[in-house]
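Late entry, evening session. Most of the bench is empty. Finally got around to the prediction I had been postponing all week. Sequence below, unchanged from the version circulated by S.P.
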Amino acid sequence: MQDLLLFPIADYWWFYGLFTLFVLGMLALDLGVFHRKAHEVSMKEAATWSVVWISLALVFCFGFWQYAQWKLPQYPPVLEALAAQGITDPAAIAAATGKMANQSALEFLTGFVVEKSLSVDNIFVFVVVFGYFGIPRAYQHRVLFFGILGALISRVIFISIGAALMKYHWVLYVFGAFLIFTGIKIFFADDKPIEPEKNPFVRALRRFLPITQNLEGQRFFIRKGTVLYGTPLLV
């Protein structure tokens, strides 16, 4: 049962497609409607939106759990796997698939909580970067939005690559060794202040695209004559 893949993309492409469209729709509403005009986000507004997004995730988790409870008892691959273990009694099938549904929902919830917890650490980085480039609070939401959108795209790419590599069991040892090496390196590394100007990406960006010294409203690019410039918001 451990090798049984629940909700594979080949069978549930419509589910993943709808989920992706929903997420993109919410992001479009967030930037295009609710935060169309740049303004300083108050603590009350930020807390309200946090409650909204967390509530949406919990509602999705509950709906997914309910769907899994209904779908798994009639999903042929699951029934075949259970039959191979001698589980054919309806009550036993219901119990086994109920555990699978619970596990699937718990995995989503665990991933969400872990990501939320890790995002707290990112706040300190955001504060340093925004302070370094002097980004007004009114524009910070726009920068964060596109930063998070880029992170989502990167996650999709790397998770897809990782899922393809998971069939090679030796890859787990390579990733494990890399994580151990990274952990040891971080443990013995000296604490150094974050210096965005020395970041390899920032240095490479400045090499290929001139950056203005001052902000140009909430724009990421600006054209002066025939030359295209990036703004500190882009950096």
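Two things to note before I forget:
The chain has a mean pLDDT of 82.
The chain has seven helices and two strands.
Will write this up properly tomorrow.
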